[in-house]
Design goal:
seven-stranded mixed β-sheet; four-stranded mixed β-sheet
Length: 395
């Protein structure tokens, strides 16, 4: 199929949730993508922070092929070896004592919301309210949409499940003022991803932890975008010296194979007992084999440290461009998450970068977002900076 046939086929037969697109990629390897005309691109978007190890990473591909030749699926009515191995690895590399596996970020957040409610119900003191942040993004299911502090995503989908209230992000007084005895948890992204890579003050998460502790509320961190190495640590909370009670991950966990997970402390885990939550596909042999290979690669000694070095180099380059061009308002960075806030619509710049052979994307109407794979080289970082320099010159 060529691009025009794909456009026509999509327009005719696919529910129009994504609108018209200008490209179709048909192959990927490492940091590179090829479109349907055979043109090569440097991928600095990673499928919105999914292919963090690059495309078709050999460790993941080998694990997938081996698993596909052995056993694709059995239900959670049986023990699943790679699921058990993945849980052990994630426990060893995080605060969490236990994990629940599902298929997506929204489902991981659903699990976090449900375990919070049930944890308090089981104690005999229901605390149904969860505080989330204005401008947050937590997913598209009804409950995660209710958790998402942005009316534009919610409009037309009412009635939404009750029990969510919103505070200002990065404003500890706003959180303090909203705390009440029926607040069961505070749920936050360590960096606002979809709302423009908003990085909070360095001590914000520690202050949130302290407020949660003061009010005996649970702290949920949505690391669906910030997790899986994206910020230069395996999970973004590791930049601080606090731990949450519940953590959600998805996106980069399987490097492109759909998988989500909710990790929590032993105490919180008691909120779910047999039969209270479940899923058909979640944690099946194929997706957990892929995630196990992904996490083994990412936690190998030196891997994240090397990524953090290139990350800082690219950030320095972006800041230099911010000094050079008035069209850049500011640059926001956390590890390999970059938001370049512009004075006008980002779309022409994304198109110009694609024209120059670089894939990047938006994070809101005026923010250019780079989410490069963690394997980029210094040379590739420099190549993208040079192309951005040229594109900004004509912007
Ligand atoms: N939470 C955050 C922070 C996200 O960035 C996203 C997706 O962009 C989600 C939740 C939803 O994840 P999914 O699209 O896998 O359901």
């Amino acid at each position: 199929m060529d691009l025009s046939e794909m456009k026509a086929g999509s327009a005719a037969n696919i529910v129009n949730t994504y609108g018209e697109r200008r490209l179709s990629f048909v192959r990927g390897e490492g940091t590179k993508l090829w479109d349907s005309t055979g043109r090569e691109y440097l991928d600095f978007f990673s499928g919105i922070s999914v292919t963090n190890l690059g495309h078709c990473h050999p460790a993941v591909t080998d694990a997938l092929c081996a698993q596909a030749n052995t056993l694709l699926h059995v239900s959670n009515l049986y023990y699943i070896e790679p699921q058990v191995q993945l849980a052990a690895l994630l426990c060893a590399h995080s605060f969490a004592d236990r994990w629940f596996f599902c298929n997506s970020g929204a489902e991981a957040n659903e699990a976090a919301i449900k375990i919070t409610r049930r944890y308090w119900a089981q104690k005999g003191t229901p605390r149904p309210v969860i505080l989330t942040a204005k401008k947050s993004f937590h997913g598209r299911t009804l409950a995660t949409l209710a958790a998402t502090g942005q009316p534009k995503y919610q409009e037309g989908f009412e009635p939404l499940p009750p029990g969510f209230e919103y505070v200002e992000y990065n404003d500890i007084d706003s959180l303090r003022a909203a705390m009440r005895p029926d607040v069961g948890a505070v749920m936050l992204e360590p960096v606002l991803g979809e709302s423009g890579i908003v990085v909070p003050d360095e001590n914000y998460l520690a202050e949130v932890r302290a407020v949660c502790d003061e009010h005996d509320a649970l702290m949920i961190l949505d690391e669906i975008q910030t997790g899986s190495g994206r910020t230069g640590k395996l999970f973004a909370y590791m930049h601080s010296d606090i731990t949450p009670d519940i953590l959600t991950v998805a996106k980069g966990l399987g490097n492109g194979v759909p998988i989500g997970a909710m990790g929590c402390t032993e105490t919180v885990a008691a909120g779910f007992t047999p039969g209270t939550h479940g899923t058909t596909f979640g944690g099946n042999p194929l997706c957990t084999a892929a995630a196990l290979a992904t996490m083994q690669t990412m936690t190998a000694p030196g891997f994240l440290e090397r990524a953090a070095e290139v990350a800082a180099h690219f950030a320095a380059g972006l800041n230099a461009l911010a000094d050079k061009y008035d069209s850049i308002v500011t640059v926001r960075v956390k590890g390999l998450m970059y938001g370049v806030e512009l004075t006008k619509s980002v779309n022409p710049l994304i198109d110009a970068m694609a024209e120059a052979g670089v894939v990047c994307g938006p994070a809101g109407p005026q923010v250019l977002r780079f989410l490069p794979p963690l394997i980029i080289s210094m040379e590739e970082a420099d190549e993208v900076l040079a192309k951005l320099d040229t594109a900004l010159g004509a912007f």
